[in-house]
Amino acid sequence: MTTALNIALSKGRILEEGLPLLERAGIRPTENPLKSRKLILDTNLPEVKLTIIRAADVPTYVQFGAADLGIAGKDVLMEYEGDGLYELLDLKIARCRMMVAEPKSLASRDDPDSWTRLRIATKYVKTTQRHFAAKGIQTDIIKLYGSMELAPLVGLSDRIVDLVDTGNTLKANGLAEVEHIADISAWLVANRASMKMKQQALKSLVNRLEQAVA
Ligand code: ATP
Ligand code: PRP
Ligand code: MG
């Protein structure tokens, strides 16, 4: 008998960069997940299914065992406070960095060592709080769900914490990077119970993915 394995992942970058990786690991969805409206997709491997969910929901599905495995950005994992989740493998896709950014005019004369209190707009409230608390800097955090780059332009905040890859979005909005918080990439995570109950099946899938990353 084969052991069913569910992999949770999100549309957008993770799926776009994850599909070629899964393909190299010998896993191909039977229909195009970028086009399909289905939320559970079969693959060429009868035991492996892909569950398509929002990026920030991946850790929740995996923690509660609704998926055995998940693919989630380190940013999402850093922000998630649940347990029962193992970070198994850096998949080295969807790579970017989490940064503090501010208006260019301010950045040219700003020194992160002189910060005492900051007003920051971000989607990463807990990570931002943790980062600055560790440095003894107080923060007033404004929670947003996207388009953080807009906040300093309209006076909502002085600074933002967001992901940066090419830097094009910052540049287009007159912002500059001023402090690095973390390097980000997508990780393969596993449910703790699945690791025990489905050890063999998981191990072989993780091995294939490990080779696909290398
Ligand atoms: P949603 O649209 O549901 O709010 P999202 O914006 O997090 O989700 P994506 O933009 O596809 O969805 O990002 C998924 C993951 O890809 C992020 O969690 C992050 O790890 C990574 N990522 C985000 N932006 C970039 C980027 N510009 N370059 C590279 N990787 C990125
Ligand atoms: C992400 C991120 C930045 C941008 C950075 O947004 O939140 O806004 O990419 O990439 P860059 O440095 O290459 O410009 P995304 O494109 O995912 O938009 P959304 O999440 O707000 O939909
Ligand atoms: Mg995004």
Give an account of the 3D structure.
Keywords: Amino-acid biosynthesis, ATP-binding, Cytoplasm, Glycosyltransferase, Histidine biosynthesis, Nucleotide-binding, Transferase. InterPro entries: ATP_PRibTrfase_cat (IPR013820), ATP_PRibTrfase_CS (IPR018198), ATP_PRibTrfase_HisG (IPR001348), ATP_PRibTrfase_HisG_short (IPR024893). Its EC number is 2.4.2.17. Heteromultimer composed of HisG and HisZ subunits. The chain has 214 residues and is an alpha/beta fold. The chain has two domains: 5-94 and 185-213, D-Maltodextrin-Binding Protein, domain 2; 96-183, D-Maltodextrin-Binding Protein, domain 2 (3-Layer(aba) Sandwich). Helix content is 30%, strand content 32%. The strands form two sheets. Strands 2-3-1-4-11-5 form a six-stranded mixed β-sheet. Strands 8-7-9-6-10 form a five-stranded mixed β-sheet. Helix 1 (13-24) packs across helix 8. It is elongated. It starts with a strand and ends with a helix. 33% of the residues are buried. The site of 1-O-pyrophosphono-5-O-phosphono-alpha-D-ribofuranose has 11 residues, from strand 9 and helix 6.
Q: How far from one another are the termini?
A: 30 Å
Proportion of helical residues = 25-40%
> What is the element string, with H for helices and E for strands?
EHEEHEHEEHEHEEHEEHH
Name the CATH superfamily classification of the largest domain: Periplasmic binding protein-like II
Rg from Cα: 19 Å
